[in-house]
Amino acid sequence: MTRRLLTGNGAAAWGARLAGVDYVPAFPITPQTEIIETLADWIDRGELAGRLVTLESEHSMITAAGAAAVTGVRVFSATSSQGLLYAMEMLYTVAGWRAPFVLVNVSRGLAAPITLEPDHNDILAARDSGFLQLHCATCQEVLDSVLLAYRLAEDERVRLPVIVNLDGFYLSFTREPVAIPEPEAARRFLPPFDPETNQFRASAPVSQAVAVLGGGPYSYFRYEMQLAAVNALTVYDEVAGDFAAAFGRTYAAVEDYQSHDAEVVFVMMGSFAIKAREAVDRLREAGWAVGLLRPRLLRPFPAGTFQRLLAGKRGVAVVDQNLSLGKGGVLYMELASALYGQPGAPPVLASFIGGLGGRDIGPEEFYAMARITRQAAEAGRAPPPRLLYTLEELREVRTLQAIAAVERRSLGETP
Amino acid sequence: MNETVFRRMKDLPSTHLLGTGTPMCAGCGGLEAIHEIYDILGGKTVFVNAAGCMTLLSVYPFTPFRGSWLYTAMASAPAGAQGVRDALDILLAQNRLDPAEDVEVVVLTGDGAAYGMGLSATSAAIERGLDFLYICYDNEGYGNTGQQYSGATPHGARTATSLGRQGFRGYKKDLFAIWAAHRPAYVATVIGAEPLDLARKIETARSLRGPRLIIALSPCPTGWDYDPKETVAIGKLAVKTGVWPLQEYVDGQVAHTKVPHPRLPVEEYLKTQGRFAHLFSPERNEALLAEIQARVDAYWAEAGD
Question: With CB atoms counted within 10 Å of each terminal CB, which end of chain B scores lower, N or C?
Answer without folding.
Answer: N
